[in-house]
Design goal:
globular; four-stranded antiparallel β-sheet; 9 strands; alpha+beta; 4 helices
Length: 186
Amino acid sequence: MESEGSRVVVPRNFRLLEELERGEKGIGDGTVSYGMDDADDVYMQSWTGTIIGPPNTVHEGRIYQLKLFCGNEYPDEPPAVRFQTRINMTCVNQETGLVEPRLFPMLADWRREYTMEDILMQLKKEMFSPQNRKLAQPPEGVSVRLLSPGNLLFSLCINLVPALQQFFVLFFCSMKIHPSSKSSYR
């Protein structure tokens, strides 16, 4: 192990294993969670996060899915963070869902001791901020990208209860039209 002054630097994989263990145990009140996106990802790069919108904001009760990508330089460099669920926040690129580091201080001023949990908690806190708490949001619903036989990509937005959303996804699968839950961003 290397050391910086009197501080021990934990290697990347050990750090990610610690974060995985903490994420699996659950965080605080359960409104923020995270875990690995793919259990077979031996490099532990791809992660999924969830934030349940805070009360007394336009985000209340909404469930936001995020992807976090920890490159080879993590935790020395911040992960890339992208909302999979459409959201309107001042620090999120409206076209891609990417949390813009220059607009989100935690990523702009990244420190090695910050964690994915810290990022998710800070994003939730940002939802409370005056500039975001009343900002109009896209309609709720699930966006499903469909690949038609002619290779045309189009979106179908389903504003239904989750059980019906699942029914429609299964219906499209049975028609050999392949749904992709990659992102609700185009």
